[in-house]
Amino acid sequence: MSTPDRLVELQVTGYANGGAGIARSDGRVAFVDGALPGETVIARITDDSHSAYMKAIAETILEPSEHRRPPECFAAAAGAGCCDLSFVAPEYARELAGSALADVLVRIGHLDLDALPAPSIEALAAESTGWRIRTRLAVGNDGRAGLRGRGSSEIITVPCAAPVSGLLREVNALGAAPGTELVLMADADGNRHAAELSAPHFGKGRNRKPGRDQHRRGAQRTRSARSAPRTLRHLEGDELVQHRVGTRTWRIPVNGFWQAHRNAPQVYTATALRMLGAVGITGEVHAWDLYGGAGVFTAALLDGSADHGFTVSSIDLVDSDTDALAAAAVTLGDDAVKAHRGGVADALASLDRPNIVISDPPRTGAGLSVVDGIVAAQPEAIVHVGCDAASFARDVGRFAAQGYRVRAWQGFDAFPMTHHLEAIAILTR
C-alpha cells in the first residue's frame, strides 16, 4: 500500500458518484477529488486504509481536461466545502452527473437502462451562480462568518458564488456571536432574513479508540449536536419568510426547510404533474404526499391536476416537521387535505388507499419499509423524488423489483457547481 500524504501520478479514466475522478494505483481504484476524466494529475493520497481502494486529492494538473476552467467559486478554491465542481464547465458537469446517475441505477438499483432512455440532467437556470436562497455560515472566535472548510473545522470567510445576490451582504455586521451559526434566507422578492442559531453542544465523547472508528464516531456526534434543538435569535427581517409557487404563498421559519434552488419548487411540481398526465391518470383520485413538508406538491395537485386530465379529490399529507405542517395548514386551508405529523413509515397503515403517491424523502431516501408500504397500497402511479443518486437508485430499484415499471425519469442540476443532483421518476404497476 502507498503511504498517506504520498504524492503519486495518476491517469484519471472515469467519474464516480460523489464527484471524484477514478484512477488506478498499485492495483487499486483511486478516487481523486478535483480531477476529471482524461486528466493526468499529481495527487496526494488522503486515505490509504482500504484494501480495495484509496482516496486522493489532485495537487497538480499535468494534462488538464478541455472541460476544466478557472473556478467560479472563490470560496471553494480557498478550501470551503461548498462548490466542489466550480472548476468544471456546467454542460460537462451535467454530463458527468448523468453518467453517475445511470451507473448507480444499474449497479445499485439493478435497473435495465436499455429499456429506457438514459437519464438526462436539466439545468434549472441559465447561470450556475447566484441560485441558492438559503445557507448557513459558521461564526468564528473573531466574530467573522464563513463556510466550514472541506473536511476541517477551519472557517473560510471568502464568499461563496452560489447564494443569490445580497444574501451574503455584510454578514459580519449582523452581529452573530462567536461559536454560533448564521442562518440566512432570501424571500420571494429577494429580501434577506437572518437569525443566529446557538452553538451546538457536542459534549464529551467517551470513545477514545484511535483511528477510523474514532473519526466516524466523532462525525456522528457532530451531526447529532448540530441537529439537536438550539436557540434561535432573529437578527434581520422576519421570523417567517415568504415564498411563492404558482398562485400560492407560504411563510416558512427562517431556519425551516425550503428548496435551496430558487427555481426548484416550480420545476419539480410541474414535472410531477406532467409525468402523471403522461401515464394516463384520469378521473378523481386520492393522493399521498409523503415527506410533504409545507405541501408544495399538494398545492400543485390541487391547483394543476385538471390541466393534465385528472382531478385530486383528497390528499393525505405526511411529514414529521411541525413548523412545515403549520405552514401548509395556513397556505392550503383546504378540507380536501388531511395532515399527519410523524414518521412516514408509521403513518402509512392508517392512510386511505391512494391512486397516486408522491414521495420526496430526505437525502437518505425512503428506505425499505416505506417503499414496501407504498407498494402494499397498490397505487396506480408513484412519483419518486431523490436528492441523492445512490438512495434514489436503491428506492426506485426496490419499487421495480416489486412489480412497478419506471415509465420516465429526469435529473436536475439543482445544486450547480456541485456533484449533487435531484432526480424524479414515475412508476406504474
Q: Explain this structure to me?
A:
An eight-stranded mixed sheet has the order 7-21-22-20-19-16-17-18, sandwiched between helices. It has a six-stranded mixed sheet with strand order 1-5-6-4-3-2. Strands 10-9-8-11-12-13 form a six-stranded antiparallel sheet, with no helix packed on it. Helices cover 23% and strands 30% of the residues. The protein has nine helices and 22 strands. The chain is globular and about 65 Å long. The chain is of the alpha/beta class and 429 residues long. A hairpin with a 5-residue loop joins strand 8 and strand 9. It has helices spanning 74-77, 90-107, 212-227, 264-278, 296-304, 322-332, 344-347, 368-377, 389-401; strands spanning 7-11, 14-15, 21-25, 28-33, 40-47, 53-63, 121-123, 134-139, 145-148, 155-156, 181-186, 192-197, 232-236, 240-245, 248-253, 283-290, 310-319, 337-341, 356-359, 381-386, 405-413, 422-428.
Summarize the structure.
The protein is an alpha/beta fold. The chain is built from nine helices and 22 strands. Helix 4 (264-278) crosses helix 5 (296-304).
Main attributes of the structure:
alpha/beta, Rossmann fold, 429 residues, 9 helices
Cross-sheet strand order for the largest sheet? 7-21-22-20-19-16-17-18
Identify low-pLDDT runs: 206-210, 214-221
Strand fraction equals: 25-35%
Question: Compute the gyration radius: what is it?
Answer: 22 Å
- Which CATH-level-2 architecture of the largest domain? 3-Layer(aba) Sandwich
